[in-house]
Amino acid sequence: MIEYLEQIVVAELTQYLAMDLDGGFPVLVREYQGLLMAMAFQSTRSQADAEDLVATCLLNAYRSMRGYGPQRIAQLKLRSWLTTILVNLIRNRWRKGLTDTLRASRPLWEVDERIQNPSEGRALDGSQTSVADLLGILPPNQRIAVIMRHVIGYELRDISEALGCPIGTAKSHVSRGLARLRAELERGVSWQE
Amino acid sequence: MKSVSENDVLRRLRGLNLATTGPGSNVEDMVIHKWCTIDGPIGPVVVVYNSIGLRHLHLLQGDVEHGSRSADAGEFLSSLGLPLLEVKGPPLEVSRGLERGDGREISYDLRDFTSFEAEVWMAALEIVRGQVKPYSWLAQHIGRPRAVRAVGTALGKNPIPILIPCHRVVRSDGTVGNYAFGSDYKARILRHEGVVVSGSSSNPDKAHVTRAISIHGGN
User: Fold this and answer.
1) Could you count the other beta carbons within 10 Å of the beta carbon of residue B34?
2) Rounded to 5 degrees, what are φ and ψ at B187?
């Protein structure tokens, strides 16, 4: 019975949130934290940073909804709305090149630096990690677009919404990012030989 | 040059998500904050915490009979803008800290604040029960001897009064100085902790600490 109720709740989560924000919010967190964590982790490669970003994203979402009123909440497309909030947080963090001052976590530029000096031979070893590290050389929008489309599996529509650009632009971010990754991987393979 | 096919790139990208699904995250416990009312040294307090640590403490005003106390609690909780869940009691370290007047063993979630503020508060934690220190001591202690006013401002923003004992920081002439909940409250807590405060405690300029373990002394 409880499971059945929970299913109804998930299907009509926005209605529930519109009626009772505090009652529905924990359900929202359970429903979307996995997806948001995957996105945040792939963008930061750090569990602690990812948790921090997703927690901030969900708190911002909660605060926004408190100011929205029931009708606006009922019309939210939660998946893409939450993803957009998260992507903005990720991009801001990249822009600042900083992580949280109170948490001793690995700054992103350390990841990037290694990739910028492939002669040290760390990034381009042809393993899974190398693709992960290579993502770091892509410009922010391409990086987000490739991660969203090909690592997590979002639709182009979601990407265009999250990046605030037309679908055509989102599509070109994805394909340029892919082409760059492919070129870098080829360079890496030849460098190894 | 060996070629890498697009499919190969896509396969590796998909593999990332499979290979790196990290250990279960505790985002839910970071986001949904727990709260409860418990007894503080001089009346009930509301505490709000998450899996990172204690985030807020509020000294409840008003009385039970007229419902003004629960109204105060409601107003405080609503002002936080946090998703909340009421629980029966706080973590053991919090109730123990309140009992002993010592917040050093508690973890705090201070991510909403600047590192300067957090530094001031962490330094204030070292002032033990029964002791008072001047603002200038705190400024010196964090290596910013000239930032006395900034230290005062940071203390005024303390989200966890009592446990982070900003009430133990007084003016260097011994008068109790200001407090977010009124200087009267500050004097009451200090008296409760065994500090002798004389003069009109409702006036931050008149109430005077006449005996404490140390005003200027110590490290």
Assistant:
1) 19
2) -65, -40
B47-106 pLDDT, tens digit per residue, is 999 999 999 999 998 777 777 888 899 999 999 999 999 999 999 999 999 999 999 999
Alpha-carbon distance A165 to nearest alpha carbon in chain B (angstroms): 23
Tokens 């997806």, located at residue: A35
Distance CA A176, CA B6 (A): 12
- Residue A128 CA to its chain's centroid (Å): 19
Closest to B125 measured CA to CA, from B166, B68, B180: B166
Which residue in A57, A127, A151, A152 has the most chain B C-beta atoms within 10 A of its own C-beta, making it the best mutation to test that interface? A151
The pLDDT-based confidence of A104 (bands split at 50, 70, 90) is very low
A1/chain B closest Cα distance in angstroms: 23
Angle between helices A21-44 and B6-19 (to 10 degrees): 130
Structure tokens at A63: 């605060």
> Closest Cα partner for A87 from A52, A43, A48?
A43
Closest of A51, A170, A125, A159 to residue B29, by C-alpha: A51
Instruction: Please report, for residues A83, A89, B90, the alpha-carbon distance to residue A53 in angstroms, rounded to integers and kept in the order given.
Output: 11, 7, 26
Which amino acid is located at B141 in the chain?
H
Q: Which residues of B touch A25 (CB under 8 A)?
A: 32, 83
Helix (H, G, I), strand (E, B) or coil at A106: coil
Interchain contact, A42 vs B15, CB within 8 Å: no
Asked if the C-beta of B7 comes within 8 angstroms of chain A's C-beta atoms, the answer is no
Q: What are the backbone angles phi and psi of residue B217, rounded to the nearest 5°? A: -70, -165
Say whether residue B18 is in contact with chain A using an 8 A CB cutoff.
no
Is-catalytic flag, B36?
no
Using CB atoms, which residue from B13, B20, B27 is nearest to A55? B27
Which whole number is the average pLDDT over A49-55? 92
- What's the token pair of residue B50? 């998450």
Residue appearing with tokens 């005062």: B152
b/e B55-84 (16+ beta carbons within 10 angstroms → b): bbbbbbbeeeeeeebeebbeebbeebebbb
Please report how many Cα atoms fall inside a 13 Å half-sphere around the Cα of residue A98, on the Cβ side.
5
A26·B115 Cβ contact <8 A? no
